[in-house]
Amino acid sequence: MDVIDKIAWIHLVEGEILSTRSIGKDVYYIPGGKREPGESDVDTLVREIREELEVAIEAASATHVGTFEAQAHGHATGTLVRMTCYSAGYRGVLRASSEIAELVWLTHEDRHRVAPVDQIIFDHLRARGDLR
């Protein structure tokens, strides 16, 4: 079984979560991406968020939120994505990079608009009282 190893940034403001839609994609994803060889979770988080959103994650503030698995959206049946999620502070102004079509703020009502692993994360955050 193939597993895609991804790191994601959980950024919540007033009960809404920051999500992105990549160019050419039909669903929203929590920002983040795949680990490069030799990278730690936090190294991946810092690099991916800089690449996607043009802000600097404050690495020392990174806090593990949870690790979640589901069928990988757009991949063959049996390909899983393992999403290790962190919250963290940042410096800068959030803006979409050239690979990101749009930034949006979503609530649990938008669950149907996100990838399967993100749906599990949305449910987890809702159960904790963090996502409205």
TrEMBL record:
Domain of life: Bacteria
Pfam families per the UniProt record, alphabetical: NUDIX
SUPFAM superfamilies the record matches: Nudix (SSF55811)
InterPro entries: NUDIX_hydrolase-like_dom_sf, NUDIX_hydrolase_dom
Transmembrane regions listed in the UniProt entry: none
Nudix hydrolase domain: residues covered: 1-129
Protein name: DNA mismatch repair protein MutT
Taxonomy of the source species: Bacteria, Bacillati, Actinomycetota, Actinomycetes, Micromonosporales
